[in-house]
Design a protein that fits this description.
With 640 residues, the chain is an alpha+beta fold. It has 4 domains: 223 residues, Histidine kinase-like ATPase, C-terminal domain (Heat Shock Protein 90, 2-Layer Sandwich); 131 residues, 2-Layer Sandwich (Ribosomal Protein S5, domain 2), CATH 3.30.230.80; 91 residues, Rossmann fold, CATH 3.40.50.11260; 135 residues, Up-down Bundle (Four Helix Bundle (Hemerythrin (Met), subunit A)), CATH 1.20.120.790. The chain contains 21 helices and 21 strands. The strands form 5 sheets. The chain has an 8-stranded mixed β-sheet with strand order 1-6-5-4-7-3-2-8. It has a 5-stranded mixed β-sheet with strand order 9-10-13-11-12, sandwiched between helices. A 3-stranded parallel β-sheet has the order 17-16-18. Helix 11 crosses helix 12 and helix 14 runs parallel beside helix 16.
């Protein structure tokens, strides 16, 4: 055949510079696109062979590296193309071969849902790494003639005869200098493993230079046992990933092995959820609930998105809510629309449906575990608690399904729901603690007060400073009427539980003493940051404790958790004194006879209250040590 030249039908001669620089954000994507097109071609041939009764060989895609020739060849045994097909599907960028093929199958009554991508721009990703591209193809049509198409990175191309004798397509890329790293088998293998690990047909990687070298060495070997095997069966992918299989046929070990393959450095997952739905959208996948490592930052790219087993992206924030990004696993759907690079999602009604479905299935999985195996649910709470609370706060559907299954540790370190907590309140305190959840901030609340509450049979749940303030604010706002709920710090709830005696005349004098020493004179311009109260608790072992404004403290916690620590406002504290405690009594008794010693005891009581709660800053810690030494020295001298 005489060579025939042509011109690619695009609206600008600048198309190739645009392709090379802007078509894809990562140049290694050309491997995925060309392998995907090969798989498409195999699917098309399989479908046509089924309708025409032709024999179909086992589908495969070969990736052939030739470092010496500086070429990479993608070879498939799909349906192939004749010259007219090549010109139509490759030389006309605006035309999508896959769309036309699917439409033809619909018209014939044979519909295929397994087309991975499209001819067209996907093919042109080759020019990001190649100075010249050659396509040789032989159509499966009877009597077809092989053809060869050549393009050197501009809008001109050439057709010529090809000696190809097997049905399918070979695309040879002459790699440019900037992309020569792809000629190394390790780089191409890494890219194939990333993008093509679960494609539906076997993918072989062959290093032609290594094969030629071993072949030559074997030819020179005198003994048969000295000959090396030819590496021609190097299969890259798993053609039937776990999510494509029937869950009933899988064991726990199958899921654990699959997880290990995806995340080889992780410990075993806690449990998992197998997704499989085909109406009103298609979705398959496996989501794993991982064991969290507190010393390892959370990676947002832990769920991998596939389209017909082709890796698309590990950024699924538009597909599933952010709170589920702590999960790991895979999602495969044909109903998620993708742009030309297959790495960004477009607006589509199915996205919201898929997102809602995943949220519902995750919640149902957790509910089932809570109901059927409470001990296992409890044991996994340390790992799943964060995202579960986050989900309740951020997603109304998840909130509706999971709020009553949120757990907190009580004063005896037993995990309880909020309902179980309220049921545990002794009858004699139910009136004062109606609808109240008493909470304790670990490392910030007075543990001694929690112990005193427990002697009255009242527990306090333990909370953190990150997600729990948001959760508490959310549930207080959502629960109304008979389901109303409010939270109180142990510092504020102690007065509702411990019985108090009537105030005496000395109580007011004690308040005045501590106010003068610890607060000092104030005016409107410099208001006091601390107030003094006297509460005469019966049987209390606490000399004093600090309480703060509940709402202000929670606001500060949420502000800090959101990274706005600089916006914190100083909160007003109240030092609550117990006048029946010996330390307070002695400070009062010594106020006239040993004023200095009385002042030191007052400061010491304040320091102890701070240490029992939020602790001391570095500067105040130094003052505490200095004052304590002075106080002990003076008391020692008195004893002598």
């Amino acid at each position: 055949m005489t060579a025939r030249k042509g011109h690619i039908s695009v609206s600008t001669t600048d198309i190739f510079p645009i392709i090379k620089k802007w078509l894809y954000s990562e140049h290694d994507i050309f491997i995925r696109e060309l392998v995907s097109n090969g798989c498409d071609a195999i699917t098309k041939r399989t479908t046509l062979a089924r309708t025409t009764g032709q024999e179909m060989p086992t589908g495969e895609v070969q990736v052939l590296l030739d470092k010496e020739a500086k070429t990479i060849t993608f070879k498939d045994n799909g349906l192939g193309m004749n010259e007219a097909d090549v010109e139509k599907y490759i030389a006309q960028l605006a035309f999508s071969g896959a769309e036309e093929f699917v439409q033809k199958m619909k018209d014939s009554g044979e519909e295929s849902n397994d087309i991975i991508g499209k001819f067209g721009l996907g093919f042109y990703s080759a020019f990001m790494v190649a100075d010249k591209v050659e396509v040789e193809s032989l159509s499966m049509e009877e009597g077809a003639k092989a053809t060869k198409w050549t393009c050197e990175g501009n809008t001109d191309y050439e057709f010529s005869d090809s000696d190809k004798t097997t049905v399918g397509t070979e695309i040879t890329l002459h790699i440019n200098e900037e992309s020569k790293e792809f000629l190394d088998s390790w780089k191409t293998r890494e890219t194939l493993s990333s993008y093509c690990n679960f494609m539906p047909y076997s993918i072989y990687l062959k290093d032609l230079n290594d094969i030629a070298k071993i072949t030559a060495e074997n030819a020179a070997a005198e003994k048969e046992e000295d000959k090396k095997p030819i590496p021609d069966t190097d299969i890259i992918n798993d053609t039937e990933p776990l999510w494509k299989k029937d869950p009933a046929s899988l064991s726990d070990q199958d899921y654990k092995d699959f997880y290990k393959k995806l995340y080889p450095m992780d410990p075993e997952p806690l449990f998992w959820l197998h997704l499989n739905v085909d109406h009103p959208f298609t979705l398959q996948g496996v989501l794993f609930f991982p064991k969290l490592n507190p010393n390892k930052p959370v990676n947002e790219s832990t769920i991998k998105l596939y389209c017909k087993q082709v890796f698309v992206s590990d950024n699924v924030k538009d597909v599933i809510p952010e709170f589920l990004s702590l999960l790991k696993g895979t999602i495969d759907s044909t109903d998620i629309p993708l742009n030309v690079s297959r790495s960004a999602l477009q607006g589509d009604p199915n996205i919201k449906k898929i997102s809602n479905y995943i949220v519902k299935k995750v919640a149902e999985s957790l509910k089932k575990r809570f109901k059927n195996d409470r001990s296992a649910y409890d044991s996994s709470w340390e790992d799943i608690g964060l995202f579960t609370k986050y989900g309740v706060v951020s997603d109304p559907k998840f909130d509706e399904l999971m709020r009553d299954r949120i757990l907190f540790k009580n004063s005896e370190d037993k995990l309880v729901t909020l309902s179980e907590y309220k049921e545990s309140i002794p009858e004699k305190h139910t009136e004062k603690l109606k609808d109240t959840i008493v909470y304790f901030e670990e490392h910030a609340s007075d543990a001694n007060l929690r112990t005193q509450l427990l002697t009255e049979g009242v527990h306090a749940i333990t909370t953190d400073n990150y997600i729990d303030p948001h959760f508490m604010q959310h549930t207080e706002m959502q629960k109304q009427g008979d389901e109303a709920i409010k939270y109180k710090l142990v510092d504020n709830a102690i007065e509702d539980v411990l019985e108090t005696e009537n105030a005496s005349e000395d109580d007011m004098k004690i308040k005045d003493l501590f106010t003068n020493i610890l607060v000092g004179a104030t005016d409107e311009k410099t208001p006091a940051t601390m107030e003094i109260e006297v509460k005469n608790f019966k049987n209390s072992t606490t000399a004093a404790y600090f309480k703060v404004d509940e709402q202000m403290k929670r606001f500060q916690q949420m502000t800090k958790a959101m990274g706005n620590a600089g916006m914190e406002m100083p909160s007003k504290k109240t030092l609550v004194l117990n006048p029946s405690h010996n330390l307070v009594k002695n400070a009062f008794k010594l106020a006239d006879s040993k004023k200095d010693l009385s002042e030191k005891i007052c400061h010491h009581i304040q320091d102890l209250a701070a240490i029992s709660g939020e602790g001391l800053t570095d500067d105040k810690r130094k003052d505490f040590v200095h004052r304590s030494q002075d106080l002990i020295s003076e008391l020692s001298n008195l004893a002598l």
